[in-house]
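Students often ask why inverse folding is considered easier than folding. One informal answer: many sequences map to the same fold, so there is more than one right answer. In these notes we will look at a single instance of the problem. The structure comes first.
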């Protein structure tokens, strides 16, 4: 369950920097319109993440593919994916380490290559036995350059070291198009589909995330039940009828548009939520950062970052809204025994999680006294169900903020330009690059600045 606390955004607490409750409520018709528009996109099939969470056939395919993997006794599943095609699985892998019984679960060691740092790749390659490793390439478009280039490297080594090496490969990609799909079809490689209408950063409930998640021992049905429960709850009630995701979307939107809060800080308290905050940053930034608008997401982890950025958040520019995320139950705890150390009498008998929570509450209070807005989300615990709820809530919140900002939260036109220049620099010749080719010529004609 997710609990929200919005007290510290109110003008009754942070005076002129805060919002009146009536300002939030006055957004009701826009929120209803946003939800209606998203519902239309869902019904027309243009946006698929709402329905993918109840795609039982997809779940069955994921489980069958994973069971085949287990039957071959692979030791390692090595997953290659970028952005939305890897961050969800990385977030779930880390969150799982925050579950009390995680050590008992994994049937195969799951590792990731998210970047193309050659030394990182070499170190991973040196640490695995190719014969006992299944290589999983996740790419919705099926031709993302980082994935394809690593595929060629892995394929070359596999060809030299493993007989019938194609059995060691699995692709997760678009149903019809793209290089990996074509290669899989022509070479009999195992393949799982990603639905056409689910974009990378909304794909946490697709095979791209669920396959590695199942392999690492996660109960993927429980995860999807969490998402489904959250979806049905939000869709069947009024936007202000105990439906805090809409209040949260309204708060982020209003602080950005009316209070110059250009930076949104998702501030998680707990080490096993760090990767969640990276997943959330990508979802938020790639969905909302366009048409010259959007707050900038800057993740932080408490209590660690209290000794890092907090000074800036407390006394720097009044341009930030902070959204804390914390846990009610860690599932495990220590009790501090400070008997005999009189100056620490207040620590004696405290649970370590209480120390962490009191630090968070202290920061919240200090921010509020300094008239700086924050709100808090509390998760009852880390398990598959709560991760399903949390991730669905975030996707809905971001989609709604997109609607309020009147931008399309489901595309990413700005990412293409850099890719095109990279293709040109690598010597690709293609009519679709003619504009960038001219721009590159003009750029190269400008002399560098002497220093
Ligand atoms: O959210 C997105 O759409 C992107 O971050 C993509 O997931 C990322 O660029 C990887 O794309 P692909 O899955 O096509 O390889």
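Output (designed amino acids):
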């Amino acid at each position: 369950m997710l609990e929200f606390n919005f007290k510290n955004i109110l003008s009754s607490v942070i005076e002129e920097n805060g919002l009146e409750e009536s300002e939030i409520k006055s957004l009701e018709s826009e929120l209803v319109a946003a939800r209606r528009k998203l519902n239309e996109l869902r019904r027309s099939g243009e946006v698929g993440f709402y329905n993918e969470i109840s795609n039982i056939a997809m779940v069955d395919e994921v489980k069958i593919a994973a069971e085949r993997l287990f039957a071959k006794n692979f030791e390692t599943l090595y997953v290659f994916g970028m952005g939305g095609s890897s961050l969800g699985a990385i977030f779930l892998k880390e969150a799982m380490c925050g579950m009390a019984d995680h050590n008992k679960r994994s049937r195969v060691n799951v590792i990731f290559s998210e970047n193309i740092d050659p030394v990182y790749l070499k170190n991973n390659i040196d640490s695995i036995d190719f014969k006992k490793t299944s290589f999983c390439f996740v790419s919705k478009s099926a031709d993302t350059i980082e994935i394809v280039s690593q595929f060629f490297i892995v394929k070359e080594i596999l060809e030299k070291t493993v007989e019938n090496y194609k059995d060691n490969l699995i692709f997760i990609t678009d149903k019809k198009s793209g290089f990996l799909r074509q290669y899989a079809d022509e070479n009999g490689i195992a393949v799982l589909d990603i639905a056409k209408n689910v974009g990378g950063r909304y794909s946490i409930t697709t095979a791209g995330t669920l396959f590695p998640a199942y392999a690492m021992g996660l109960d993927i049905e429980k995860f999807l039940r969490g998402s489904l429960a959250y979806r049905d709850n939000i869709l069947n009630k009024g936007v202000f009828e105990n439906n805090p995701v809409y209040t949260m979307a309204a708060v982020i939107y209003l602080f950005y548009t009316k209070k110059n809060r250009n930076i949104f800080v998702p501030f998680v308290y707990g080490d096993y939520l760090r990767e969640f905050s990276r997943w959330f940053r990508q979802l938020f930034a790639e969905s909302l950062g366009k048409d010259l608008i959007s707050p900038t997401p800057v993740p932080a982890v408490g209590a660690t970052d209290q000794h890092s950025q907090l000074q800036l958040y407390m006394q720097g520019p009044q341009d930030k809204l902070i959204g804390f995320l914390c846990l009610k139950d860690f599932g495990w705890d220590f009790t501090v025994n400070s008997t005999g150390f009189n100056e620490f009498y207040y620590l004696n008998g405290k649970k370590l999680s209480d120390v962490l929570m009191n630090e968070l509450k202290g920061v919240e209070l200090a921010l509020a006294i300094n008239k700086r807005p924050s709100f808090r989300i509390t998760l009852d615990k880390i398990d598959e169900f709560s991760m399903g709820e949390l991730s669905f809530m975030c996707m809905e919140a971001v989609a709604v903020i997109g609607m309020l900002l009147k931008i399309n939260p489901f595309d990413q036109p700005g990412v293409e330009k850099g890719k095109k220049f990279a293709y040109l620099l690598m010597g690709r010749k293609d009519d679709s690059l003619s504009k960038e080719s001219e721009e590159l010529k003009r750029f190269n004609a400008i002399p560098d600045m002497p220093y």
